[in-house]
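User: Design a sequence. Structure:
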């Protein structure tokens, strides 16, 4: 075996091979894509075709592929598949966090294409993350700069100002929503300039619904105010669903607004195109001369094609220039590298300086150096209102006229004033003129703050709080100060504006009345486009709504990826209690127990929700909002005078990437060696001296197997699964390692040194105290390593409880052993029991553990199966509803009783419904035959169904009698290329499954 074969698993290489085929477009046949039919359940029939890891990997790659080249429909289908595969397949307490890590790792694997060593590491990390082990997941969250989110998914993570690819952002709507979910963002406002494309809005709303992200869509308009533009964001609200919003966009008055908005965008595009011309004619030539480059002129059509569906901006232009400049930079560095090898030391220093200069020419440097108004002052300033006759009318409208138009279109709305480049005088004038139409202030914009455009926020915030407070003296003093400061400024419009402010001063109650019922609230956003490497990306969060570990990461001074912004907003926790659908003690018993004082909430599910007071935001250095997005401090073009080496893997890559089988063996040895040495040191009886470690490991191994089988159904488990199908050998290896390390503690330290030698306690003199001390020590040890492994607090407390129960069990085993030794004719049974006290205590502890953890595994399986059946039955009843609509004059239930006639009827009208009904039946059959605890959950679901619902369920399964049609679906690739196993399973088991369904139906209170 070669040294490098110690690292990575065969499954890692298979995963990487498949991933690279997809990346290189070698593995994108329609048959493979059928694996992600929305009707196929992640825990259903396709498990027999492709492993879970490969399905999750392909779902991510499929989505990233469609992000680049696919249609919106394909992107949304890929996103749905990704959600189902990553989220519903995570069988762990950190279900959502595991899914976030899996998606992020696969994104990194795609980006690392060409670097095989890094890809192998990522593939190994991906498979480790798929296990859902808390310690592994938390380590990977830190590695990829993701904060751990509460599994209740109630964190206050948001961003009220982001852009997608339909304006100047980098990501299309689906990609934006996916990345927002990975970061943990629950509330998002996407801003468009001047108009909304209905197709973009539809994709955005559907993607948000798929991932459970609360979404708002806003339109930003510019309006002239005293020689500059102010930005107003209009967010229509009050629609019942996404279709209501899309219908609003289709109305004639809204279409007219969008038409005028497109004129404004085309006007602004002309400035960008003039800047492109200026680059070609002036700045490009200057760079060629100064840096020795050979930059060619850039074409207008090429640039517009690069912009794509977006709205042309200077940010687009900077990236386009950089993309076309990069080959010239690399070529120039190659020339300088050849010269550098033979140059004198002074010349070498000059070359190194020049290469560093070329290396720093990133898009933001291009934007800040050559694409500003200062560098092109002969062009009209786009931020100054123009008097040109061709200026679109919407760009001439004053704020009040514009808002009157916008608010007349829909009764529900929010209007946010962007404070970038706005003074407190501007805000006061706008609030007065607009008479309450401005509902929010964008109190903090991360991009404007980084660019130094957020001066005067404290004064504006003080005005906002004074208006909301209703305190007339405070507001009066603020307005007087504004008048005083503006009078002293001596600006041209000083008298006119101060007269307006004095009118406000005389009518303070009227100003306050605008916001008496609904306060003037705040909005906070990053203004992220996902393009900048110098500023924090999308996402903000209130740290107090995160788990303690995530809060510590944010407070860690070494963590430079996070930043606390200077805004503090009040948040509070609200609790509610919802009755459980299936109380664990039954409805009647639960209702009786609730009458007992202190048990009134028994059978209720506690839900917590964080609530934010957006009218309480204060600009202060003591902020309580942190950034979620990171940034690169040292972003460059990766240019160097040194030739870069290949991407070969080093000989040693650390234990983290070692072959799983070898790691499991090392774990077992790490536990077995100290256990063996401990028994050799303490035991004089040869049986325990030589076989004590094996007995100890045998107890632990048997307990793990027993609890896995109990959790999977025990003796009533499905006959298609063997006992070892329930067993995780990696989990057993971990357990054997920790149990082996416990031997020196329990056998050497506690039993031998402390109890026997120091205190003179033996099982003969005081068995209760001996077993209690050993059980307490074992409980503390288990709690310690559970905490180290990152298990939930409930598991840690449960294991302490397990140790308490082990004390009477130890006494029972002690008595049984004593009786057996006496019956066996042993002269001095205590002489044999005393050395084995730790073994007896261990046996008792693992007996209790097998029962407790077996029931924990059982509940985990029940919870997973409940999710499976609820989602699958929802699909089944949805398909049935569509059948009822398709055949309004037919009795569909009777039609389902005759599968041949049903297939014939549906084939003629809606083939897709036939496929959906068959897939649903196959998935339900797979649940019943393969998934742990599926039979228990189906019986539970049947008890809560109406008679008609049971009939729909059972009769829809009769479609499985049509062997020819079902077999043809498999051959056509409904579960991909590897259909032999699922096809064989169907042919072998469908008759047995249908008999089981008939028996269940016969036991019910109503016929099926």
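Assistant: Done.
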């Amino acid at each position: 075996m070669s040294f490098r074969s110690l690292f990575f698993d065969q499954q890692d290489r298979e995963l990487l091979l498949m991933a690279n085929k997809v990346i290189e477009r070698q593995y994108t046949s329609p048959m493979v894509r059928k694996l992600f039919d929305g009707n196929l359940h992640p825990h259903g029939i396709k498990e027999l075709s492709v492993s879970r890891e490969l399905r999750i990997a392909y779902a991510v790659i499929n989505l990233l592929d469609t992000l680049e080249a696919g249609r919106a429909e394909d992107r949304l289908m890929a996103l749905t598949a990704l959600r189902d595969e990553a989220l519903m397949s995570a069988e762990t307490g950190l279900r959502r966090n595991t899914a976030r890590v899996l998606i992020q790792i696969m994104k990194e694997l795609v980006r690392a294409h060409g670097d095989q060593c890094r890809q192998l590491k990522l593939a190994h990390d991906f498979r480790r993350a798929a296990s859902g082990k808390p310690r592994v997941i938390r380590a990977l969250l830190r590695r990829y700069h993701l904060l751990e989110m509460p599994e209740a998914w109630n964190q206050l993570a948001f961003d009220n100002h982001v852009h997608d690819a339909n304006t100047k952002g980098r990501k299309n709507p689906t990609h934006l929503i996916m990345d927002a979910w990975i970061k943990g963002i629950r509330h998002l406002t996407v801003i468009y300039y001047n108009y909304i494309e209905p197709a973009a809005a539809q994709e955005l709303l559907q993607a948000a619904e798929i991932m459970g992200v609360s979404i708002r869509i806003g339109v930003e308009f510019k309006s002239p105010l005293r020689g500059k533009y102010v930005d107003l964001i209009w967010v229509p609200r009050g629609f019942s669903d996404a279709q209501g919003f899309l219908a609003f966009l289709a109305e004639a008055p809204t279409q007219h607004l969008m038409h005028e908005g497109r004129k404004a965008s085309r006007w602004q595009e002309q400035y960008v195109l003039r800047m492109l011309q200026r680059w070609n004619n002036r700045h490009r030539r200057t760079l060629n001369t100064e840096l020795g480059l050979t930059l060619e002129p850039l074409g207008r059509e090429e640039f517009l094609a690069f912009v794509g569906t977006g709205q042309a901006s200077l940010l687009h232009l900077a990236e386009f220039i950089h993309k076309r400049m990069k080959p010239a930079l690399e070529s120039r560095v190659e020339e300088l590298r050849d010269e550098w090898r033979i140059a004198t030391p002074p010349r070498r220093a000059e070359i190194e300086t020049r290469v560093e200069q070329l290396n720093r020419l990133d898009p933001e440097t291009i934007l800040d150096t050559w694409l500003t108004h200062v560098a092109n002052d002969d062009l009209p300033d786009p931020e100054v209102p123009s008097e040109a006759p061709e200026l679109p009318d919407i760009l001439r409208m004053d704020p009040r006229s514009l808002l009157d138009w916008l608010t007349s279109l829909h009764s529900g709305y929010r209007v946010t004033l962007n404070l970038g480049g706005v003074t407190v005088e501007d805000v006061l004038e706008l609030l007065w003129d607009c008479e309450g139409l401005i509902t929010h202030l964008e109190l903090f914009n991360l991009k404007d703050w980084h660019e130094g455009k957020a001066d005067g926020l404290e004064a504006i915030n003080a005005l906002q709080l004074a208006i909301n407070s209703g305190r007339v003296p405070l507001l009066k003093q603020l307005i007087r100060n504004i008048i005083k400061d503006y009078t002293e400024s001596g600006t041209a419009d000083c008298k006119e504006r101060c007269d307006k402010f004095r009118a406000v001063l005389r009518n303070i109650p009227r100003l306050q009345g605008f916001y008496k019922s609904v306060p003037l609230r705040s909005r906070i956003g990053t203004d992220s486009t996902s393009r900048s490497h110098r500023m924090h990306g999308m996402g903000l969060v209130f740290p107090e709504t995160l788990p303690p570990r995530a809060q510590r990461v944010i407070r860690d001074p070494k963590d430079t990826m996070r930043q606390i912004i200077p805004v503090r907003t009040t948040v509070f926790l609200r609790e509610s209690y919802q009755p459980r659908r299936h109380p664990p003690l039954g409805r009647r018993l639960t209702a009786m127990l609730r009458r007992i004082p202190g048990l009134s909430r028994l059978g209720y599910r506690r839900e917590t929700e964080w609530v934010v007071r957006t009218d309480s935001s204060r600009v202060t250095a003591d902020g309580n909002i942190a950034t979620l997005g990171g940034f690169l401090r040292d972003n460059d073009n990766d240019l160097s005078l040194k030739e870069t080496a290949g991407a070969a893997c080093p000989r040693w890559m650390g234990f983290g990437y070692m072959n799983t089988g070898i790691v499991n063996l090392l774990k077992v040895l790490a536990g077995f060696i100290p256990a063996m040495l401990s028994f050799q040191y303490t035991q004089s009886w040869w049986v325990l001296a030589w076989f004590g470690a094996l007995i100890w490991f045998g107890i632990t191994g048997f307990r793990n197997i027993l609890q896995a089988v109990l959790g999977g159904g025990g003796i009533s488990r499905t006959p298609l699964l063997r006992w070892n199908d329930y067993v995780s050998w990696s989990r057993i290896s971990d357990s054997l390692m920790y149990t082996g390390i416990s031997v020196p503690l329990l056998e050497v330290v506690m039993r031998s040194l402390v109890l026997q030698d120091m205190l003179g306690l033996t099982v003969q003199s005081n068995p209760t105290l001996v077993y209690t001390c050993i059980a307490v020590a074992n409980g503390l040890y288990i709690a310690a390593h559970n905490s180290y492994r990152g298990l939930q607090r409930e598991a840690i407390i449960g294991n302490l409880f397990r140790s308490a129960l082990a004390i009477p069990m130890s006494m029972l085993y002690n008595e049984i052993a004593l009786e057996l030794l006496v019956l066996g004719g042993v002269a001095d049974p205590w002489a044999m029991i005393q050395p084995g006290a730790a073994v007896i205590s261990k046996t008792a502890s693992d007996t209790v553990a097998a029962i407790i953890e077996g029931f924990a595994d059982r509940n985990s399986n029940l919870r997973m199966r409940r999710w499976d059946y609820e989602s699958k039955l929802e699909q089944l009843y949805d398909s049935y509803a569509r059948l009822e609509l398709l055949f309004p004059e037919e009795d569909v239930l009777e039609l389902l009783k005759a599968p041949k006639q049903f297939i014939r009827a549906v084939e003629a009208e809606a083939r897709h419904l036939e496929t959906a009904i068959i897939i649903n039946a196959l998935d339900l059959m797979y649940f019943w035959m393969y998934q742990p605890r599926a039979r228990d959950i189906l019986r539970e679901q049947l008890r809560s169904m109406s008679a008609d619902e049971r009939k729909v369920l059972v009769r829809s399964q009769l479609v499985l009698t049509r062997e020819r049609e079902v077999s043809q679906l498999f051959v056509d690739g409904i579960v991909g290329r590897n259909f032999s196993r699922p096809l064989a399973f169907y042919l072998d088991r469908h008759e047995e499954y249908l008999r089981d369904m008939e028996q269940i139906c016969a036991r019910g209170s109503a016929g099926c």
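Residues 22 and 28 are 6 Å apart (CA to CA). The chain has a mean pLDDT of 87.
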